[in-house]
Amino acid sequence: MRTGLVALGTGFLALAVAGVVALFLIPIPASTVTSSTTTSWTAAAGSSNGTEIAGAPSVQGSFVLHWQTHLPLAVKVYLSQGCEPGVGNCPAWQLIFSAADMPEGNFSEGAPLHFPFLFSWSNPSSAAGPITLSAATTTQGETSLAPVSQVLLGLGVAALGFVGGVTLFLGLFLRGGVYDVAQGPRLRSPPDLVPEDEGPDRPPH
């Protein structure tokens, strides 16, 4: 058995398993998408007005309204049931927020959201002035790998697993110590050399 090859093959296989888990089991974090609109009015003394904020009938996300003015506004926010109130069998508007003498404020709503919303205001004072309303809806975007990226990553993980499997197999079944000098073949020592002038047929000097 080759311990080094076994360790290397095991490491490759562990990386391949981690790649499969990351590719197919761990979800990719989705980015958030925010859409916003801004509406403004010039409110006369004693006037009132409002606006609908449109969107998908039902969506998972968060919704925020922010209004600002120097007038002592009375504001109301109405909720729908995902359809246009008063049209067909759609229920009427449902009041979910009301405040008086509020020149600046916020309203927020969490998932699930049902559009449209209705924001209305009235100016009870004798002064006129501008009103600004901003609406923002934040939802989770869909994030996924392109098919080509999935194929390429899958091939990379498969190749890593194949190399790891072959390496582990070789490490388990190859005989260890093949190249060990202590166990290598022994070289035969050369025969004793006899000087030419002292051969068996020549008398010694």
How would you describe this structure to a colleague?
The chain has two helices and eight strands; from the N terminus they run H-E-E-E-E-E-E-E-E-H. The radius of gyration is 41 Å and the shape is rod-shaped. Mean pLDDT is 81; it is low at 178-182. It starts with a helix and ends in a 32-residue tail after the last helix. The protein has helices at 3-25, 147-173; strands at 32-43, 48-53, 61-68, 74-79, 94-99, 104-109, 117-122, 129-140. It has a four-stranded antiparallel sheet, with no helix packed on it. Helix 1 runs antiparallel to helix 2 (147-173). With 205 residues, the chain is an alpha+beta fold.
Summarize, please.
The chain has 205 residues and is α+β, with helices and mostly antiparallel strands. The chain has helices at residues 3-25, 147-173; strands at residues 32-43, 48-53, 61-68, 74-79, 94-99, 104-109, 117-122, 129-140.
